[in-house]
Structure formats: structure tokens, C-alpha cells
Amino acid sequence: MYASHRRAFLVLVVLGAVVLAVVVSRGSGPQTAAASSHAEAPLISEDPRADNTDLYAFVSPDRPDTVTIVANYIPLEAPASGPNFPAFDDSVRYELNVDNNGDGEDDLSYEFRFKTVTRNPDTFLYNTGPIDSLTDPDWNRVQTYSVTLVDGKKKGKGKAKVLGENLPTPPDNIGPRSTPNYPALASAAVSSIGDGIKVFAGQRDDPFYVDLGSIFDLAGLRPFNPFHAIPLPAEAGRDAVARFNTHTIAIQVPISQLVKIPNTTIGIYASASRQKETVLRKDGTKDGNGPWVQVSRLGEPLINEAVIPLGTKDLWNRVDPEDDAQFTSYYTDPEVSRLENLLYGGVLAPIATTGRSDLVAILLTGVPGLNYTGPTKSDLLRLNTAIAPSASPSRLGVLDGDFAGFPNGRRLSDDIIDIELRAFAQGYGPVLAGALGLPNLSPNNQLGDGVDANDVPLLTMFPYVGTPHQGYQVP
Amino acid sequence: MKRRLTVGAAAAVLAAAALLLGGAFRGGSSAASAPVAAPATAESLQTGFSPGSTEGLVARLQAQLRTAPDDARALDLLGLAYQQRARETGDPTWYAKSDGVLRKALRLAPDDLLATSGLGSLALSRHRFAAALTLGERARRLSPTTARNYGVIGDALVELGRYRDGFRAFDRMATLKPSLSSYARVAHARELIGDWDGAVSAMKLAADSAIGEQEPTAWTRVQLGKLYWNRGRLAQADREFRDALTAFPGYVYALDARAQVEAARGRIRPAIALERQASDTIPLPQFVATLGDLYRVEGDERGARREYALIGVIERLLRANGVKTDLETALFDVDHRVRLPHALSLARLAQAERPSIDGDDVLAWALARNGRCAEARAWSERALRLGTRDALKFFHRGWIEACLGDRSAARLWYRRSLALNPHFSILWAPVARKGVSS
User: Fold this and answer.
1) Which pLDDT score is estimated for A383?
2) Axis crossing angle, helix A335-344 with helix B2-25, rounded to the nearest 10
């Protein structure tokens, strides 16, 4: 009995580590806290407001002729974080990029820029009375934004068209006195900007879910508690990202504007860029007008965290997906799998540590017959827009035979932790084993943290992401 | 705050899992049954963690290393956490501890990027700039695309007086990853070359990118405030310092800065209270010296002497933990007429090791106060070679000109220094004012 317990424990620990690698680094790069000599400037900064935590893309269930793209920035916002409630950064350019011909380059780029106005500089307060509407004078720190579509950015054509300006954002959800009737404020901040396009930018509930609490406790997974080296009764998982907010940028665009027929699959990534400032400015260069440099990007979930090694992260975040072939070896020979194998060695059937073409397909080229975009390897969230939304979505997406879910795009409800746990462990489940011959190791194909859904209900209409938690309710 | 705790906790679990993995792999069942250290990764060494949380982090990493003493990753993190403790407490014994664990990490994993750049930043903190440069270069070879390596290299080069190369390193850093870290360095460099507007705009970008993080926000606000202060913009400076204290209550660098604002407004008692609070929290030599100066201004010579006497003790402690303080000691001694000939030889030594414009300026000042004003003038010229607009360096030059008998040149420099910031120094601004009117 000991041996089998031990074995189960090892498996869970390994997978726990994978999950953790994944979760821990959501929204944070490596960082030293060291000081420099004279000016003592930090050597690295976390930069939460330029930090892209999650990207989702799906055919809109209530408008199936459109695609919705949701990009979240600013990780783990505590709802009661006044008086400086979180907001987008006016000096960051936020970008949602679409490749529609499989070459990895962005053919369409929706750029979001924000502008903060402090209506009354004599108070540090966010608001001086209830905010009843988006134009309420009691709301002191207001943020608006513009949306610009850049067509063929990478090919130098770069036709930029302003789609919307001075668009409203909702206030953060503060409490029943400051932000009564929050859902109405939020829905008033959905803007239609012509050509059937809708946009939203503002605070929402973070739809990501994971049982950190149990994983923290000796890498446990509650449903598997009896098999742990220190056994406990099995329990349901508990969502540790519950009660945290994030800032969402969402856009809904008619499919016809996104795809390039005959291709029906589009590749999407979100990014954030900052302007480069150098010591010696060239003549004529004005302040703050340096060229934009991408500092954060996100296509498939967890690549920066679980695939790209420490010394390569700055480079990876800076380069564009069309240049991702240089990182292929991190996918084919993933560090995580080496670690797994080390621990599985002699105990379980070994997991392939080289030639992981399964990961290359899912994460870099798309899966043939589902969302393959060609041989160009690029980290994009690939969505086949010809696949209709599922009437009864499965949290396990394609692993469970629901082809409208991850890795065909990513819905807000998809259980990325469980799916990735199983994919890393080569437990792809019977559907993919049958259809594509992917490995289906057992019991790896049963793994999960026991948290299967978000704490807050999703909206049934754009922007779909749930109402943010109130500071008043969640200290 | 909560968010940071969560991130820290997540990091802790990862490390715990790693520990367990390591232990399990070594086949020791003891690892699985050992008390669990819930520790941290680089991610929990993020900016903005409060003193309490670093303390907890250190304890957890120490516990983890008791179970698995050869975990290079944990050693890296502990080494960096020790450096953060030094920042927070001013206790230089953390430097020696950081040194020990980072060296051990490097013995276990000679190509460890984090240990290498961590030793680089430690060398910077200890004012060992040549060593920092070597380590920064080594880290760069390990990962030429990691922005922070160029921060270590650039900081070292600037302190070694190799400005052109240093600025190039900052530009490289900015190209790889525009961020708080690179914006702040670019701001500092622009200030050095006299581009104050450019420095302010870069530091504002740094402050923007720091929002949401406690210590970085406080740090950038204080830096921005100091830029305003250096141009005599008291109210603007004070607003930044107050913002820093709102973001990070009790932040000592903001307390110190606010003390100087109060002193500039002629409110010596509130100034003393603020400086006292700063130096009680972190007895950094510059805080204690300022406190002494404030007592002296108030006419409390005993209080002043008491603080001044403390400086020697603090500096000995710094030296015992590997921090080079020759330049700072020389400046204090020269300012306060302590053993002037010895201060001069100390300044020479310091300038040779740290041939920056600060090294040049302190040497110029030491020579002048020893009556060797012709020599002093040449060093003062060197100190101003970048076009830096620094009231104290201007004042030193004026004093040197006066010593050489050129009263009109002296008045010109004094006027320049006061025009930049009429309150540039508790000790010397009054002297400059007198010099202008004489």
C-alpha cells in the first residue's frame, strides 16, 4: 500500500509543481529586489499594468457571426484597494492582434490607448459622492480610451484608422454607496463603434480559477486527498482566485472582418507595449515619443510561465509570434516534462521529453483538422471561426469532444489548469487519442484541482466577463 | 496588499513543491514527512513587498534550506531576500549573509543567472563597482537578452566614471525592455548630462509603470520629488514625497526628503521629528548626518555631536560588512572639519576607486578645505565635465574660486547654485547666500 500511495503522491507533487509554475508566474516575471549603487533604481519591475494575464477568444454565443476577444491585464486586484483604485496605464499601448493567413504576422491590430482625467485635483478621493452614471460629476478620476485599427502593421502598410475616441470606461466597483447599481454602469460602458464592432474596457471579475490553497498545502489536490502521503478526506476544490478582479479589454468583431477567405482559422495574441526612452535623444525627438517596444504578450495560456526559461523571458516577450520558431526546442523538449520524467523514472511509464510534436501542434501551429494554420510556428491562440458555439460547453473543451473550446480558441469557462495538467502529463483523453492518436496515459487523464468553474457567473452577453467584486463586500 | 500576499503564497507553494520534488527524488522519505517550508521564488521577491513579508520570506527560505541545503534556487532567492532586508533595515550584516548564500549557489550551479546578477547587485550595494562590472558582464554572457544585466553593468560603469559606456548599457536595457528600471536609469543619466526636462519626463514614465506596487511607487515618487527639489520647486517636490508616504507609510527616504523640505521652510522642529523617525527606522549615515546638521542649526550642539558620533560607528559597521564608504566618510569629514588631512587621503583613495563626477567633486572639496585650492579647481572642473547642474557641486566650485581670490567668479557660482535650489544644503546654502551678498 505504501508504494502505491507514494506513487500517487509523486504524481500529484509533480503535477502540483506544474500547476504552480503556471499559477505563480501569472502576471509576474522574475525579479530581483536589489538596489543599484547611486540612484538605487530597482533592477527589474513587475509592471502589473502592462502585464497581460489571460487571453480568451471565442465565437460569440449570442452573436455567432462575430468573434469576441477578451484580454485581461493587471493580475489579482484586491477589490478594496483604494484610494488608488486600479486603472489602465495611460503610457501603455494595449494591443489585440489577429493573423488571418497563417504567416504569424498580425494582419489586424486593435490598439487601445487610455487617458485619465482628474476632475478635481484637490482631493485624493476617487469619488466624492455616489456614481450614478458615467458622466456623474462626483466621479473624480475618470478614464477614457481610443481604439485604432492598424491594418497590415507588420508589412509596413500600417494603415491606421481610428475606430472610436473618448470612449467611456466604468468606475471600479467600490461599494453600495459609491457605485450603486454597478451592472448598469458597466453595461453603459459597452460602446458600439460602427461596422458591428463592440468594445469594452474596465474592471471585471478575474474569470481564471484554480485551487491554490490546497496546492499550497504540500502540493495537494483536494479530490485526491486520500492518495496524498499525508492523507485527508477527499474534498471539493476551492477557487483561490475567487474574489479577485482584473482589468478587461474586450472587443467583438464580425467574423467577416477578421478572416481572410478561404481561411476560417485566425490566430490571436494580446500584447502591451511601452515607449522606449534612451539617454541621448536624437534631435527633434520629443519626450515620450520613442518607438514602441512590446513588453508583454500572450497567445496560448502559460507559455511565458511554463515553457520559456528565465534567461529568455525578456527576449520572448519582446519578439513577435512570427519569430517564434527560435523557441521550438522549449516546446519539443519542455523543461516541465524533463522534471516529470525525472520523478516518474522507474515508477510510471515515461513521458516523452523530446520530440513533443503534440505540444508543437497544440501550441505553435494548430491541430490538423481543427485549427491548423500552416507550418509557421507562432504562439497564437487559434480559433476556427467556422465551428459554431457549443450549446452545452464542456470545461475540458476539445479533450471532452467539445470542439468550440480550448485549444480551439479559449472560452472564459474553459478549465485551463485541468486541461494543461493532463496535456503536460500526456493524458489527452479518449477523444484526442482516437482522432489524432495522441497519448492517453492513465491516471494522468483524470487529473484536476477540483475547481471546475469560476466563482462569479459569466454574463450571457458582451463582454461576458463577470461583474467585479465590490471593495465594500470583499475587504 | 492582499494581492501581493497571494502571489507570495503561490510562490511559496511552488518552492515547497520544488523542495518536495527534490527531496522525493533523492529518495529520502524524510523529505516528505519533514515540516513543510513554505517558501518563495523570485516572483515573491517582487518589488513592493513590505518589511514584514520579507522577514517571513527569509524565515521560510531558511527553513526550506535546513531540509535541502543544496537547493541552488532557494539559495538564490534567499540571497536576494537578504539584500532586500538590507534595503529595508539598513542593517549591513544582511550583505554578508547574502554574499554567503549567493556564493554557495554559484558553487552548486556555476552558470546560475540569478546568483550571478544577484552578486552583481550586491557588489553595487557595497560600492564595489569594478567587481559589479565583472559580475554584470558575466551575467550578460549567460543571458545577453535579459534587460536587468545591463542595469548592473550600466550602474557600475557610471560609478566608475565611464559615462559613455554606461549610458550605452542603459540604452540597451531600454531597448530590450522599457520599464520602471530602465526609465529610472535613463532619468538619472539625463540628470547627469544636465537634461532636467528629459529626466523629469523619464521619471514620470517610471512612476507610471510603478503604480500598483508599493515600494516602487514610493521610490519613483521620491526620485521625481528630488528632481523637483534640485530645481528648488519645493511645493511640487513635497507633493511627490507626500504621495510616496501615502503609498508606503513610514517610507524612510520620503521622511528624510520631507525633513529637508520642512527645514527649507524654516520649520526645524518638524524637520528634526521627521529625520529622527527616518534614522530611528534605518540609521543610514546620511540620515544621521542630516539630523546632526539640523540640531546644529537649531543651536543644539550637544545633540549634533551625539548624532555625528554615531556616524563613525555606523560606518565601521558598514565596512565590517563589506561596504566601501570612503567617499561618503570623506565628504562627511570634510563638511564637518574632522581630521582634514586624513579626509583628503581618504578622498584620494575613494576617487581612484570611484572616478565618477561625485568622486571628483568630493576630492575637489577635500583639497579645497585643506587649502589646496588650485588643485581643487582642476578636480572641480572634472566634476562638472558632463554639464551636470548640481547645486552642491556649483557651491564647491564657488568656494574654491573664493579661496583662489576670484570673488566675482565665486559669486557667480554661488548665485548659480542658489538659482538652482536656494535650499540645496542645510549647512552650505547659508554660506552661499552670504558669499553672494559679500
Assistant:
1) 98
2) 40
Question: Which residues in chain B have their CB less than 8 angstroms from residue A293's CB?
Answer: 175, 177-178
Written as nine digits, the cell of A252 is 467583438
pLDDT in tens, A58-106: 999 999 999 999 999 998 888 887 778 999 999 999 999 999 999 999 9
Q: Do the Cβ atoms of A36 and B41 come within 8 Å?
A: no
DSSP code for A410: B
**B41, A43: Cβ pair inside 8 Å?**
no
Please indicate whether, in this complex, the C-beta atoms of B24 and A10 are within 8 angstroms of each other. yes
In a 13 Å sphere around the CA of B245, the CA atoms on its Cβ side amount to: 18
Cβ contact A47–B7 (<8 Å)? no
- Cβ-Cβ contacts under 8 Å, A16 against chain B: 13, 17
Min distance B20 CA to chain A CA atoms (Å): 7
The one-letter amino acid code at B119 reads: L
Amino acid at B428: W
Per-residue pLDDT tens over the stretch A443-458: 788 878 899 999 999 9
Q: So what's the pLDDT on residue A4?
A: 35
User: Is residue A431 a contact partner of residue A399, using CB atoms and an 8 Å limit?
Assistant: yes
User: Which CATH number describes the domain made up of B1-110?
Assistant: 1.25.40
SS3 percent helix, strand, coil of chain B, rounded to 5, is 80, 0, 20
| Chain B contact for A84 (CB, 8 A cutoff) | yes
pLDDT digits (tens, 9 = 90+) for A38-57: 446 666 567 889 999 999 99
Report whether B77 contacts B45 (CB < 8 A): yes
**Is there a contact between B17 and A16 if contact means CB atoms under 8 Å apart?**
yes
B156: nearest CA partner in chain A: A37
What pairs with residue A296 in β-bridges? A272
Residues B382 and B360: beta-carbon distance below 8 Å: yes
Q: Is the ipTM of this complex over 0.90?
A: no
**In this complex, is the C-beta atom of A257 within 8 Å of any C-beta atom belonging to chain B?**
no
**pTM for this one?**
0.87
**pLDDT for res B11:** 34
Q: Is the pLDDT confidence value at B154 over 90?
A: yes
Domain segments of chain B as ranges: 1-110
Query: B161 is written with which cell numbers?
Result: 566614471
- With beta carbons less than 8 A apart as the criterion, state whether A96 and A249 touch: yes
CB-hemisphere CA count at 13 Å for B375? Answer: 13
C-alpha cell at B337: 572639519
In order of B67, B90, B290, B325, the CA distances from B305 in angstroms are 49, 22, 12, 20
Determine the 3-state secondary structure of A297 from DSSP: strand
Q: Does residue A217 carry a pLDDT above 90?
A: no
CA distances from A87 to A75, A95, A375, A458 (A): 12, 16, 39, 22
